[in-house]
Design goal:
Order of helices and strands: EEEHEEEEEHHEH
Number of helices: 4
Number of domains: 1
Radius of gyration: 13 Å
Strand content: 25-35%
Strand order of the largest sheet: 1-2-3-9-8-5
CATH topology: OB fold (Dihydrolipoamide Acetyltransferase, E2P)
Structural class: alpha+beta
């Protein structure tokens, strides 16, 4: 199970990487493995300001459809356009090319509420 040490995680299996004041968000390797083959990703929140834990999009796999939640509050500044034509990139590279959105964060202190890599590993191994 790939759990990069430079990221923060949510209990809903999103990861977040902060680059300056922008948060890059995606789903974890564990989440993509549980979902199976991803066939469609819908994110229609670009340009919207959302609160932490609000739904920013949905991800559809062969087995199920799941909501994706904001790990921090802020404005969705960018959506990964590659996912429209190739949603399976999330299965292949969830922490790289398979990122979902970029957020202009409202409050960096919200990062303190997220899980460390160790805490996330404990969550999924429980």
């Amino acid at each position: 199970m790939n759990i990069p040490g430079n990221l923060k995680y949510t209990k809903d299996h999103e990861w977040i990487r902060v680059e300056d004041n922008v948060a890059v968000v995606g789903i974890t390797d564990f989440a993509q493995g549980e979902l199976g083959d991803i066939v469609f990703i819908e994110i229609e929140t670009e340009g919207e300001s959302l609160d932490k834990d609000e739904v920013f999009g949905t991800i559809e796999a062969v087995k199920t459809v799941s909501d994706m939640f904001m790990p921090v509050s802020g404005e969705v500044r960018e959506v990964n356009e590659k996912l429209e034509e190739s949603p399976d990139v999330v299965n292949k590279d969830p922490y790289g090319e398979g990122w979902m959105i970029k957020i202009a964060m409202n409050d960096k202190s919200e990062l303190d509420d997220l899980l460390s890599p160790e805490e996330y590993r404990e969550l999924i191994e429980a």
